[in-house]
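G.,

No rush on this.
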Amino acid sequence: MPAKKKKKLNKKELAAYKKKVLAERERIIRELSRIEESINSSSEIQEASKKAYSNHLADLGTDYMEKEKNFYYASVEGQYLRSLDEALKRIERGDYGKCEICDELISFKRLDVVPSARMCIKCKSESEKNQRGR
């Protein structure tokens, strides 16, 4: 008789992943803080350069591009932070680590690399394939 397949993580595993998700969340918050400082700093520099006697268009373009890059990074990190918050909610409900599509457990290997994962590798691959229209 085959061994019964495990359907959810136990309390010890959930606690370990909660610790991992919280640590990752703290890292992202620090990164968002750093990005915010960079945006504020570049705004101050841009204001100062407007007052300067000589402004070169290439310098202004570079400043603008750096600011846009920082806004993009902040957006990506913000989305990741939301996915980590959702993972914390799943941990609290006790359904963290279960694939939202097939209801099987997501591998520990995947959860270690992507602590906010909502799908197992098989379902995630299939989902991405469908999004690309294949």
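When you get to it, here's the other one too:
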Amino acid sequence: MEIKKSPKASLENGKSLGLLMGAAVGLAVLFVGFEWGTREMKVVTASEGAADVIAEEEIEITRQENTPPPPPPPAPVVSEVLNVVDDNVNLEQQDILSSEDDQSSAQTQTYVAPVVVEEEEESEHQIFTVVEKMPEFPGGQAALLKFLATSIKYPVIAQENGIQGRVVVAFVVNKDGSVVDAEVVRGVDPSLDKEALRVIGIMPKWSPGEQRGKPVRVKYTVPVQFRLQ
């Protein structure tokens, strides 16, 4: 019996159409899969600052390599080996002599005394104002005041005009005690100043002033008082 097959029931007619539709569905599913895939993204705004972005970056961790320790210092070089002996062992006494200990050279040396520099003598014209021992009137300060009171002759013109006061006179006491170079340092009236200089000029010799045990010239100042009774 011959089998007859209907052309409508043949599967070869729809084979190419099925392949096209399957390929189209596969491409559509693949495209949708790419579009719906999730991706983690982070948007950094300017307000967050660059510091936050740097903090999120991974920091590379580095490890310090183990450096070998430095070599030990060389052992000290011993120049001499000291032999330790007992206290009861007698050792030979060795004297260490140097050129400074040479007694022969010391005996030949001649002692030279240091040179004494004599102080320069004070100039004859040098005048001191303060010395170790000041000049002194014969009998002291009280005798000086008495001499002035008894020697002064009050000028008549000054008495008539009622002039009085204190005249300060400076003078130089020489090495021999004589009084020279009298001058008025502070005057009151020409008549009184002249009388004060006259009295200073007739004074006896003073005890001279001394500096380092030697008499020197000293400048001295004396006030002469003029007072009306």
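Residues 140-226 form a domain with the Fusion Protein Consisting Of Minor Coat Protein, Glycine Rich Linker, Tola, And A His Tag; Chain: A; Domain 2 fold (CATH 3.30.1150.10). Residues 15-36 form the longest helix (22 residues).

Enjoy the weekend,
O.
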